[in-house]
Design goal:
445 residues; alpha+beta; Collagenase (Catalytic Domain); Hemopexin; 2 domains; 8-stranded mixed β-sheet; 9 helices; 20% helix
């Protein structure tokens, strides 16, 4: 079963007349048969209706059989005047988690940001509801099957789901991209996640795309739990909200105890993210506040890195540094201390840092790299030098860097690219855009 959207009959008629000029008799015959059918209430320009209407399905099939020229993404005539949107939904926690994940799908590739509010007031931009039958808009639901959901374009930010449907809660994000298993929905159920991503797209100002792999295609399957935006979806939402250039502030590996499993964390501003071990997409429920997950950590650190032994994590900010006990999961007493006093030769306000297995720690600031020998507590002779001289193929002016302890691979971040350093071959493998390769999310971090 599929979620189906339709434009108004006049829009379809105009499209057919415009794109099928070479077959006028066929078009007229189809349009005459359409006009003779039972009329359907005209949709306002601000609404997008998702419904299974048999007569329109037949008409759409006829149009498709004539190979109408595909359009790409389309935008509504109205848009939000701001990018920081607040949403509200009076739903159970599991449904709220699905909606949060659905909003994140769009936040990860655009400059839109979304915040859930616990109460309904005039600050709310988008409200999501489960409703039944008639519910004070022109598009009543009809019980199980047929009509599943609909949404309204900006600035009328409402998304409605049919409460009589059996919605399945599980969801995955781009599982196929990472060759992970995609779970089907439970028998007799439909994917709330896929429906939500589609309808939220409408509430942000996206109309239907003619690209069949787009989540904004008029007919999408609700029998799978996975969503991965098509390039056309990304182009559409970035046309509305702009493309963000990620600047990873701090990324590091960490484990709580000696026999623990290494995990990768990202810190930026007052928040932190934990990345999935297989896909490096951030885990559900993140971001979280640094103050809630890391005792006594400073807000917005310049860089965080683990020492090669795995038992200590260092936090640098400004002219100070902190030392964190990984095994006890607490900050050492007596910190912060002066960088100049305990790391001679290392500048304040560093950009990036990481520690290698041979007990060297590399610090980066601007175009330069400093090599610090922790065994001798001194900066190595001949430093600083240009980053590109020390690490051939790595650009200067890094944003962050870290060692993935699971693979012992070094990653360097520069704007929206990363560079992977193979410690065996001592060479770099230029990475692609973060949003398309290893670090999948862009705007979210």
């Amino acid at each position: 079963m599929k979620l189906m959207d339709f434009d108004s009959s006049s829009q379809i008629r105009q499209m057919a007349e415009r794109t099928l000029k070479k077959r006028p008799q066929t078009v007229k015959r189809i349009l005459r048969s359409w006009i003779r059918r039972k009329p359907v209430p005209r949709q306002p320009k601000t609404a997008a209706k998702d419904a299974h209407l048999a007569n329109r399905t037949a008409y759409l099939a006829q149009i498709n059989s004539l190979q109408v020229r595909n359009r790409r993404y389309a935008l509504s005539s109205s848009s939000w005047g701001h990018r920081n949107l607040i949403w509200y939904a009076n739903v159970q926690p599991m449904a709220a988690a699905v909606f949060t994940a659905a909003f994140r799908v769009w936040a990860e590739v655009s400059r839109f940001t979304f915040q859930r509010q616990s109460h309904l007031d005039s600050n709310v931009d988008i409200q999501l509801k489960f409703l039944k039958n008639g519910h004070n808009d022109p598009y009543p639901f009809d019980g199980p099957g047929n009509s599943y959901a609909h949404a309204f374009y900006p600035p009328h930010g409402e998304v409605h789901f049919d409460a009589d449907e059996k919605w399945d809660i599980p969801y995955t994000h781009c599982a196929a991209f990472f060759n992970k298993t995609i779970s089907p929905v439970q028998p007799g159920c439909k994917s709330l996640f896929r429906a939500a991503v589609h309808e939220i797209g409408h509430s942000l100002g996206l109309k239907h795309s003619s690209v069949s792999t787009s989540i904004m295609y008029p007919t999408i399957s609700l029998d799978t739990t996975d969503v991965c935006l098509d390039d056309d979806d990304i182009a559409g939402i970035q046309h509305l909200a702009g493309k963000c250039v990620p600047r990873v502030k701090s990324i590091f590996s960490w484990r709580k105890h000696q026999n623990g499993v290494w995990a990768t964390y990202v810190m930026k501003g007052t928040n932190y993210w934990k990345l999935d071990a297989e896909t490096t997409v951030s885990m559900p429920t993140y971001p979280l506040g640094i103050v809630n997950g890391w005792v006594s950590f400073p807000k917005d650190p310049d860089e965080v890195f683990d020492y090669s032994t795995g038992d200590v994590t260092y936090i640098f900010k400004g002219s100070k540094y902190w030392k964190y006990d990984n095994y006890r999961d607490v900050m050492y007493r007596g910190y912060p201390l002066s960088i100049a006093g305990y790391w001679p030769g290392i500048p304040d306000n560093i950009d990036a840092a990481f520690s290698t297995l041979n007990h060297y720690t590399y610090f980066f600031k601007g175009n330069e790299v400093y090599k610090f020998n922790q065994g001798l507590d001194t900066t190595s002779t001949g430093y600083p030098k240009l980053t590109s001289e020390e690490w051939y193929g790595v650009p200067n002016d890094l944003d962050s860097a870290f060692v993935d302890r699971k693979t012992n691979t070094i990653y360097f971040f520069h704007q929206d690219y990363y560079y992977a350093w193979n410690t065996t071959t001592q060479s770099t493998n230029p990475g692609g855009l973060i949003g398309h390769t290893k670090f999948f999310e862009i705007c979210d971090i």
